TrEMBL record:
Pfam families documented for this protein: DUF2461 (PF09365)
Protein name: TIGR02453 family protein
InterPro entries: CHP02453, UCP028451
Length: 224
């Protein structure tokens, strides 16, 4: 089954040229029917699908996972009020989750983007992940070079320290990823995927392919 109509994509294409409150207010009912409601329904369907094999997602609701379409313009030079896509993070505790086993996705008129891994991390957890990589380098290298992972996500990304922390100076010479302050990965698909009945299956595959690496990180970061 298809979860969205073409008007989902058309709405954002038109919003890009009319990103203001007046246009949005005129098209608010259209937004509710073609964008907001079907996106929330799909997110809940995806949550329920994941919960079948992972009880940590059992009580999660779509509203806990979906980000607002309104942009935070307080500190931005770009004062357009609305995002040009819908996005959600399906992970235990949704947007409030500190865990690293889930998936973040954006559905826009140009492409679908799917992310996993570690993006934001506290200082003490950063040390623990670096220590985990240093002490389990063989396992980490095996995960990031796995054929399915490389074909789907390519490589692990993230901002790095230019200078190795003194505790990891020797290990960082052999494994540059220890210098990272983030360890995330992503892939993208044509926007037309949004209109296909393979959307759920595609997102689930992204989650499953990224899961071994996220499980690795979770060995060192134990929090909900």
């Amino acid at each position: 089954m298809a979860y969205f109509t073409k008007d989902y994509l058309d709405f954002f294409i038109e919003l890009a040229a009319n990103n203001n409150k007046d246009w949005f207010d005129i098209n608010r009912k259209r937004y509710e029917n073609s964008v907001k409601k079907p996106f929330a329904e799909f997110v809940q369907i995806f949550i329920n699908h994941v919960a079948k094999t992972n009880p940590a997602f059992k009580d999660l609701t779509a509203s806990e996972c979906i980000f607002r379409i309104n942009r935070d313009i307080r500190f931005s030079k770009d004062k357009t009020p609305y995002k040009l896509m819908c996005s959600a993070v399906v992970a235990p505790n949704g947007k409030k989750s500190k865990s690293i086993h889930g998936v973040y996705f954006e559905f826009g008129p140009e492409e679908v983007r799917v992310y996993g891994g570690v993006y934001e991390i506290e200082k003490e957890d950063l040390f623990l992940v670096r220590e985990g990589i240093a002490q389990n380098a063989k396992e980490f290298n095996s995960l990031i070079s796995d054929k399915k992972f490389v074909e789907l996500f390519g490589e692990v990304l993230g901002e790095r320290n230019k200078i190795a922390p003194k505790e990891f100076k020797e290990e960082a010479g052999n494994q540059p990823y220890i210098l990272n302050k983030q360890w995330y990965f992503f892939t993208k698909f044509d926007a037309e995927l949004i209109l296909q009945d393979t959307l759920l299956e595609t997102l689930d595959n992204c989650l499953q392919v990224g899961l071994p690496l996220e499980t690795f990180f979770n060995k060192f970061i134990q929090r909900s």
